[in-house]
Structure formats: C-alpha cells, structure tokens
C-alpha cells in the first residue's frame, strides 16, 4: 500500500475555489430575485412561491432545458465569459415563451475541468443578467469540477427553466389558420446554433479569431461571440398588446433553421410560403457561406439567417405587432403567409418544401426565391 496521501485537491478538485466562485456571483444571482424567491443563494434547492398560480383558472406549467453547444469554445478561446450566459438563457426561456408561457425561474449547471472562481462568476453573472432581461428568477445552480474529463480551461453550461400559461391562452398550432401572417423578429447574429459548422469553416479558411473583418466592422471573434437575443419579455409584450386572438403562435429559430422550426408550429394541412429574398441577410451569414463554400440548403438548415423568432399572427393584427415591435426596439418585418396546402403542388419530398421535422407531423414551409446576400 502506498504511503502517499491522496487528497481531493490532489485529484484535481478545489472546493475552496468553488466556494469563492459562489461568493463572487451571489450578488448578481440575488438581483434576479423578487419576493417569490425564498431562501437566497446556497441552499440545496431553490424555492419559489407558487401561490400566485392560484389566481389562474387552469395553470399549465411549461419547462425547457438546453445548453450553448460549441459556442463555448469561442468564449474559451477569447477568454471572454460574461456573454455566454445570454446564449444559455435565450436557448431555454425562448423555447418556453413560444407557447405563451411566462418563464418564472431557472437553474444552471456548469461543468469544468478546473474551477477558476473569476471565470465561473463571469459565466453566472451573464446568466443572471440575461435572466433579468427575461424577467426570470435564477433560483439555483451547480458547478462541478471534472478533472481528467475536461481540460483545465474547458467548461460546458446547461440550464432548465419553468414557466406558466393559462390553459385557454396557450399558443400553438391549434390557433393557426390559413390567412395568418408570419412576422420575423430579427436575430442578433448567429445565436447559439450551428457553431460546429461555423468553427469548421473558420478552421478550413485558416482565419484567426482576432482577424478584423471589414464587412463585419469588428473582429471575427467579436462577431462569433455576439450574445443571443433574449426574446421572452418582448414576445409576452406583443401578446399582451395584440391578445391571443392576434398572436397565434411563435417559432424559436434554433437548430434546423427557419423553415424547419416554423413547420413545427403549423397544423397539418397548412403551408407557410416564405420568400428568401424578403430580407437582407446579415453579413456574418454571407461570410460563412462564402468562406466555406457552404451549400445554401445546408446553411438554411443549420443557421437562423437573421431571423431568431417568428410570430404567426392574424392578418388584421400585423400592423399593430410590427408597430409594437418597433416600440420595443425589436427589428421586425412581414416574412410570409399561411395558406391551405395544395395536394397537387405541396407534395412531401418536393425540393424547398420542409415538413416533418423534430418528429412533429404538422404543417410545412415552402421556400422560394434566392437570398439577398
């Protein structure tokens, strides 16, 4: 038997560093707490007073979980960690708001090879800041040190959130009708999907992250790290203004791209027509396509191409939704329209007709024209 003493610290886990990280982040976390949050920071479980739900006639709880994907590799390469939290929160709460639910509270999980308190605190401060934008309480989290599994400067983040919506105000395919209009809500950039493709393109091109790109007006790394736009509060504001009679559904444009995600919120028998030339592509998408010679069908099935969220609204609500989006500082435009499917024309498997994605047997989206790059 070895006489050498093996300690937890010798195994690569520094519990004191973890405690320091909590001290550095706790003020930012507390700032997301309203009177509904009980117990503060550091408990085994986060507590949220749900007594307000008794005012609902039939409250439905909505939940979602997600991560940031390989975008964390950009944050790690640039040693900038206070923006990745917006990507995490956006990926989670904006999946909840598509059904009209208000995100109530969220928890996060960070796995790392080595706890650097300042770095972990930066990540959580970003999560807390984004939760404040979304009107969501950050009620708990966990940081786990995984030496030997992750490199000393590597980490990954994930989160989960819970929201609530009145049953008779639930948004989704059941409300969508022929004649409805698609309203695009602009993305802030790449958001948090498709970074495996983007990173491969950058690698093949041999570009460095500190390279200044004139068409972007900044370095490549700064563009790739642009935080995801968090839509939750704005979407809820649009619904409050137009009502559920005006806003019928939302589609969060994440993995799979625009058409695939819109098709998920259309009922069977309906098709949304979208003209690719209906908006100017932000420069980063054209750059990725050109730099990597990426086929357009591959690009549009991977990246958001400038549209981060889509509202499907009644035709008589379009002007009001566009005007209110402008008041919120949210760029928006008419993207397309919903119609009854034509059995002779809208045949599954037809090029440019997207349906049956994510296991959802719903409607379809037909893409026409070419992009304005």
TrEMBL record:
GO biological process, any: 'de novo' IMP biosynthetic process
Main location: cytoplasm
Localisation: Cytoplasm
GO MF annotation: an example: phosphoribosylformylglycinamidine cyclo-ligase activity
A GO CC term attached to the entry: cytosol
Catalytic activity: 2-formamido-N(1)-(5-O-phospho-beta-D-ribosyl)acetamidine + ATP = 5-amino-1-(5-phospho-beta-D-ribosyl)imidazole + ADP + phosphate + H(+)
Protein EC: 6.3.3.1
Entry keyword annotation includes Nucleotide-binding: yes
Xref: Pfam families: AIRS, AIRS_C
Pathway annotation: Purine metabolism; IMP biosynthesis via de novo pathway; 5-amino-1-(5-phospho-D-ribosyl)imidazole from N(2)-formyl-N(1)-(5-phospho-D-ribosyl)glycinamide: step 2/2
Stretches assigned to the PurM-like N-terminal domain: 59-165
Enzyme class of the recorded protein, top EC level: ligase
Presence of the UniProt keyword ATP-binding in the record: yes
UniProt entry keywords in alphabetical sequence: ATP-binding, Cytoplasm, Ligase, Nucleotide-binding, Purine biosynthesis
PurM-like C-terminal domain: residues covered: 177-341
Signal peptide from the UniProt entry: none
UniProt family annotation: Belongs to the AIR synthase family.
Name of the protein described by the UniProt record: Phosphoribosylformylglycinamidine cyclo-ligase
